[in-house]
Specification:
Blueprint: H1 4-15, E1 20-26, E2 31-36, H2 42-48, H3 73-76, H4 78-94, H5 101-122, H6 127-131, H7 136-140, H8 142-160, H9 165-189, E3 194-195, E4 204-205, H10 208-229
Antiparallel strand pairs: 1-2, 3-4
Helix pairs in contact: 4-5, 5-8, 5-10, 9-10
Length: about 230
Amino acid sequence: MTCNGCVSSVTDKLISLDEVQDVKIDLASGNVVLEVSKTLTLEKLTTVLPPKYIPLLETNLVKTHPNLEAPSKLKQLFPLILIFVYLILGSLLIQKNSFQINNFMIDFMGLFFVFFSFFKFLDYKGFPKAFAQYDPLAKRSALYAKIYPFIETLLGLMLLLRWQLNFVFIITIAILTITTFGVVYTLFDKNKINCACLGTALKLPMTEATLIENVIMLVMAIAMLFYQFG
């Protein structure tokens, strides 16, 4: 491999294998580290790679882990579930003196954007590429992918401060609709990629949970927009 284009091509080929959960490639050394869910042979690796790429292993066999099982969906999605629990509790605590459903939804959305942007900033350099794998607008605009965490932070703060709420709801509906289309396409196409909603620091697989998360936020934004105009 001689360039980042090679790295991207090899990564896409390897991640397409059912056994491969994650791929890490060091361009300088040419070393490739695979996280696999079950036994993977050298022959299978060779068949998926273009002829110019030849895996070099001392034993001519990939190390096998017969007792290794793929983590359950619940275990994979645990970080997302935990964050949602904290978001709900945080929103309820803010409303402890006088609970109102509309204020709860606004605070939940505000905390959601702030929390999720925080995780994106943990690996800011890696986020745009991961986001562009499924978001239609990020695929076409590298600038949009780069500023997306800042957009989320700004939207979150505006919601928590109750500033220009109608504008925030419209922008939220717009960006989440675009992302949701990308998520739906990815799920139907059965592309095995990680979701970038929690950045790249946490390995969160793209599943129906990502779609549900987006739909919840969309429904809240639409409901609150109607409420504001009502």
